[in-house]
Every structure is written in structure tokens, then in C-alpha cells.
Amino acid sequence: MKLKVTKKAVSQFLVLLPFLLIFTGSVFQNTYKIITTLCKLAGFSYMIFYVISSGKVNKNLIYVTIPFIPLLMYGILNSFSIKAGIADGLRYLFPIVILHYGYAIKEHFGLLLKFVIAFVVLNFLVQIVNYANWLRGVNQWFYYTTEDGFIHFNQTAGIMRATGTVVFFGFFGFFNMIAFFLINKFYQGPYKRIFLGISLFGLAASLSYKAFGAFFIVLIIYYYKHIYKVLASILILLLAIFISFPDKINTFGEDIILRLSLYVTKGDSARSESYRVMFNEIADFNLFGRGVGVFGGPASTDYGSTFYKLVSFNWYDTKWLNLATTDTYLPHLFVELGLVGGFSYLLILITPLLRKKINQKYIIVAVIYFCLCFDMLFSFSLNNLEYLLFSLVFVYPIYYYENNNFKVTNKGVE
Questions:
Q1: Is this prediction's pTM over 0.90?
Q2: I want to staple 291 with a disulfide (CB 3.0 to 4.6 A). Which of 33, 79, 177, 206 is the partner?
Q3: CB atoms < 10 A from the CB of 357, how many?
Q4: Distances (CA, A) of 404 to 50, 106, 171, 318
Q5: Are the beta carbons of 331 and 271 closer than 8 angstroms?
């Protein structure tokens, strides 16, 4: 039996190739990091090649990208280490390339939605297996192994945080949240409620406080008419977890109080410290920054930036974790690139939002931006290819979906 490969199938494979590369690479981030790095580099390079070879570019994106490049180059050359500058300088390009790639594949929203559903279902099934192995006490492939041989996995109140195939619970919660909004708005197939239920399960099982916060804010503002249905579903899921682990309820509550104390009321953390440094730099009118790779990002710790000592940075009790970043993006951006470079960069990212016509599709795009930016306040999601491939890449396909009237049938989006 001969396998017939159509031109359409090849085209769809080429569109999904960076997704396949990068999400496959994420599987190995705790075991074979070199595979993760190579997969990300290959996926990122492919997207650049695809955009150039397709010739499909958005003029507005080009106009705002060009002035930023000299500012980025200056930041790299102004760094304490050229290696650090190049390493973090490359990461600044991630969301820019993702936006350009999203525009180049804007005709393929139906394919992207099918991928979203398939990815959510796959990770749900894998997580069920992960739970079964966890309860059996089996050491699993995604567990961390410290230098002294200690085996570790992410948990809250003694409950394992869901990670599926992507290893990191934060991203697991994030992509299930984005999937919920996309499926709820665009998918009209016969299994819609099942897919929505699976995405809600993934969000709840991740035990990601950042995802919870963004999700509930969006529900209150945008989905307020149906909030009781979603809240009821989440409460049922959480109730099922606590019935299964009744001794964890108090511990879970204490963990929430501790995190609120660290990040909101007291602010005794590396995250709050990073914002202190940022506001001081802004007050000093730091126009062009201290240099790329100097503060906040992974290159600053990898190459031993002395800027932390200069500003008397306090890592608090997170120092023992050997954090690669300060887990905050805006301080990283404005300290390294300054006011001019920082605002120039943000202008590129919000360019798709600068539209005169505000409709339902625009609101969904705004929801995606909000979820990403909310996470960005407490993480480096804005320079993370996995997060970007489940957020910004959908922006232009969603707009194009509206303009070209894709057919929505019982089989889904065509």
C-alpha cells in the first residue's frame, strides 16, 4: 500500500515543523539539555527561513522592528561580556520572530486549532500516566536530579504539579489556559465540552498560581456571564483532588498564604528586588541601558555579571535554588536596554493590537496578550519559545480567520 503525500499535507507539515521541533525539545530539558537547545535553535532558525522564503511580511511590523535593531546591537556591544550580550540578545529576538512567523502562516488558523486540541489531549493522557507512576512511587523521566543525587519533582502541598510532556508545570497551566479560550471561541465540533473540560483539568492540575490569577481575571472581565459554569467545573476538580488527598488541604492553604506574603504583602524575594532595581534605573533616566546580558536574564548569572553587587541585589532565600533568572521580565528589559530600548521593544510586541476596529477576534487576541503579559510579570515567558508558540503566534491567524471567513462545521474549523 502506497502512502500518498499531497502538496497540502507537505505544506501543513512545514507550518507545524517549528512546533514539533520546539515542543519535542522541551521533553528533554531535565535529561538531555543539549537536545532541547538544538531543537529550539533549529525551530527558531527555521521560522526565520520560512518568513524570508515565503515573502509574507507585515509592513507595520517591519517599520517598528528596523529602529529597534541598532538599539539591540548597541546593548550587546555595551555588555560586560560579548558572549553574555549575544546569548541574551538572541532571546530578545524570539517574540519578534514569532510575530513575523505568525503573519507568514496567517492562512492556517484551522490547522493551528487542530494542533492545539491534539496537543492538549496528548498532554492530558501523558499526565494521567504521570499521576499513576507518581502514586506508585516510580522515579519518572521528567524528575530533576541534583548534583548530590537527590531526585526532585515540582509539587505543592505534597501534590505533584501536572507537567504532561512539557516538564514545566507553569507552561502546562499556561497552554491549557490559552487552549480553553481558543477552543471556547472557535471550535464548534461535537466534542467541544470534552476538550474544554480537559483544558480546565490541565489548568487546575498544574497548580500554577500565575495561570490561576490570569484565568480568573479574564473570566471576571470577559466571560462574566458564564463564570459560574467554569468556576463550578474548577471547584469540582479541586474538590476531587482534596478528597483524594484530604491531609493536604491545610498545607495547600498555607502555601498560598506564603506566596502572597512573598510576592504581594512583604515582597521579600528576588522578584521584588528586581523591580526595586528597575525603578531606581528609571528614576536615574537610564535611556540606553546597562547592556544586554547584565541583569535578570540567564546570561547574567551564567557569565557572572557584577551588576548585582553594584546595586546590592538580595536573592533572599531563593539563592539556594541557583536561579538562572530573577523570574521577572520588565526589570530585565528596562535595566539592560534602558527607557528608549525598552519602549521601542514593547512597541514591536503590541503592534498587532494597534488597530482601529475592535471586535470579538480583537478581544480574544487581547486576552492572549493579557495572559502572556501577566505571566511575564513573574517569569521570563516573553523570551520563552514554548510560551510564544502558544500565544503570540496565533495573533495574525486569528485576525486573518475573521477576514477570510473560514468555515466552522461539526468537524471543527476548516
A1: no
A2: 79
A3: 8
A4: 22, 10, 31, 50
A5: no
